[in-house]
């Protein structure tokens, strides 16, 4: 249940950011923005938040894990927005600026979302003790 709530929160955040940046500022259609939001939410939660954030370092070193995962989320957001935006609009060059702005704003939000994941979704992870001590 915690993962469903986290996915919903992430989807709302991603959709709001992309609506403001892509639809309102760069005139990308609402449908295209929604499709990009769905794909980006699914990929970045699975890869950036669960796989990379939880495995990028020792559980106690949240800041290091957060930095690595946030950078990864920036690269992933940029790539996903560019690729899907290009496939949906047929224009690559006109998607570069919107993708870059969106990825920067989303990365700032990801820093805080990772803290939420760490404390509310997988709080047990910080209490992990390895067999080696």
What are the segments in which pLDDT stays under 50 over at least 5 consecutive residues?
Answer: none
**Cα shape:** elongated
Number of strands: 0
Q: Radius of gyration over alpha carbons? A: 16 Å
N→C terminal distance: 31 Å
Major sheet details: none
Number of domains: 1
- Indicate the proportion of strand residues: under 5%
N to C succession of SSEs: HHHH
Structural class estimated from helices and strands: mainly alpha
pLDDT averaged residue by residue: 89
State the helix count: 4
Helix content: over 70%
In short:
By secondary structure, the protein is mainly alpha-helical. The chain has one domain (2-125). The chain has 4 helices and no strands.
Written description of the protein model:
With 133 residues, the chain is mostly helical. The termini are far apart. It has helices spanning 2-25, 30-55, 62-89, 93-121. Helix 1 packs across helix 2. 30% of the residues are buried. The protein has one domain. The model has no long low-confidence stretch (mean pLDDT 89). The chain has four helices and no strands. The protein is elongated. InterPro entries: DUF2512 (IPR019649). It comes from Planococcus plakortidis. Keywords: Membrane, Transmembrane, Transmembrane helix.
Topology:
Layout: H1 2-25, H2 30-55, H3 62-89, H4 93-121
Q: Any descriptors?
A:
single chain, 133 residues, elongated, transmembrane, DUF2512, transmembrane helix, membrane
């Amino acid at each position: 249940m915690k993962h469903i709530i986290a996915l919903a929160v992430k989807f709302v955040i991603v959709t709001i950011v992309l609506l403001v940046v892509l639809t309102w500022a760069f005139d990308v259609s609402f449908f295209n923005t929604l499709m990009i939001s769905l794909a980006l939410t699914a990929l970045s939660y699975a890869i950036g938040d669960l796989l990379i954030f939880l495995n990028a370092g020792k559980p106690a070193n949240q800041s290091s894990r957060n930095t690595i995962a946030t950078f990864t989320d920036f690269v992933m957001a940029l790539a996903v927005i560019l690729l899907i935006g290009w496939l949906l609009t047929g224009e690559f060059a006109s998607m570069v600026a919107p993708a870059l702005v969106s990825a920067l704003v989303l990365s700032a939000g990801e820093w805080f979302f990772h803290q939420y994941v760490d404390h509310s979704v997988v709080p047990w992870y910080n209490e992990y003790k390895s067999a080696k001590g």
